[in-house]
Amino acid sequence: MKVLSLTEPFATLIVKGSKRIETRSWKTSYRGEIYIHASNTKIPKECMRKKELMALVENCPFSFGKILCRCKLVDCVYMTEEYIREIKKSNPQEYICGEYRVGRYAWVLEDITPLQDPIEAKGHLGLWDYYTEEEIYNLLDTVTYGWMDKNKEKHFSVDSSYFENYYLQTPKEVIQNKIGVCWDQVELERECFKKSPYLAQTYALVYYDNQSCPMHTFLVYKKGNQYYWFEHAFKKYKGIHAYPTLENLLFSVRSKFIEEEIKGAFLNKNLCLYEYSALPKHSTCEEFYQHIEKSKNITFPPLYFYHLVDKEADMTHGLISLQYMYEHKLYDLFDKAVLKYKNRITKDWQIEKYKDKEQLTREEYIDALRIFRGEGGANCIYFFRYPPYTELGPKIKELSLYKDIYRINLHDEELQSQIESIFYGYNLSHSDNDLWDKTYYENVTKQEYFEKYDDSIPMNFSTLNHISICFKEGTCPLSLLEKVNWE
Hints:
Elements: E1 2-6, H1 10-16, E2 21-24, E3 32-38, H2 45-48, H3 51-55, E4 66-78, H4 81-90, H5 92-96, E5 105-120, E6 127-129, H6 133-140, E7 147-148, E8 154-155, H7 162-165, H8 171-177, H9 182-193, E9 199-207, E10 215-223, E11 226-231, E12 239-243, H10 246-261, E13 271-276, H11 285-293, E14 296-298, E15 304-310, E16 319-320, H12 322-327, H13 331-338, H14 342-348, H15 362-373, E17 380-384, H16 394-399, E18 403-409, H17 413-418, E19 419-423, H18 438-443, H19 446-449, E20 466-471, E21 475-476, E22 482-484
Parallel strand pairs: 1-3
Antiparallel strand pairs: 1-6, 2-5, 3-4, 4-5, 7-8, 9-10, 9-13, 10-11, 11-12, 13-14, 15-18, 16-21, 17-20, 18-22, 19-20
Helix pairs in contact: 8-9
């Protein structure tokens, strides 16, 4: 929608219907619907001195920095002496509300409709375009994924000629050509959001694999207390997605990019996230990469998982699974560790052959855990996404007296090289992993996570969801673990 910015009190005069002609020093050929916007500029002193003018808005609340109404611009009349005399004679109030001199222009407005909810917006000179988030998205929906080469020919897939022949289109060219990859689309989004009151920023994810170097650019804006991922080019995730924090949003986009775009082994050190500014028009691929690599490099805090360990435990081998205890005949440890599983196996887990069985052999414990957990079975070592904090309740504080807490950094390269497989949730009904996945653990807030805490349960920390990781040989080496203090 086209917008015209006016200083107060003139915007309010139009909203009231007291003013239906906006006087300007320049003409326009545009006809059609426009918004009227009250700029942030203070009321000029010369206006304040005009008693007749200010009497028209007496007791009226002024708005600054907001779009107040919509109307139709139906004519633009060159002011002659005759025209000015006619306005002064037939509509003296209109004459008071404008600046009438020969050579200026009268913009004639009709169908003035005040907005029930004025829209915050930055003012601009001339007639400018304003888009709501939905309107920006609808504009992007007219753009097909593809690119323009230096000869202005369209390509609808990224092929071997892309790197040598691509050039970055201007926002205007993207609209005209109706084609663009994420680089082009983000520049159009950036231009549209310039007119909005929301803080918008653009980011680029690049995976340096010495081959195709997968990349994706995207725009983020803040509205109120939430952050929004504005996505059009990434087909699977098209839409406007809300997040409570910027870190949550960036983690989420990052994990989706890894899942969809990185084939084969993933190395965390090869993935970079840049916060970048607008590029010069018609930048080449090489210039694009050079630009973002000079931009701010966003780093994430490590993704830690935590584990509780008896203070008297022998940690020489690090954390060891039940399978490891069994295979290495560490029966004292095994018998103590599996006790908590007996009622689950014979009752809760509904394993028919062990239902209501009074005694279980070690072999049956291993078998039952394999049945219930699926492939990997008793090799799994459980970690918390967050540690149990002592301030949560008396049972947790009591627990801290005889348990230590260790953590691992999932971004650690040595760790990644030793993990056989990581299960971010089984589609089974047991409480530890039911329906939770990697995205959940990377994005959940502490408040949401601890809502399941119940201090009345003896093993209350077990109500905080776990993650199960299967290590080679059933051990998590001590070199990968860091002992931490209770908070």
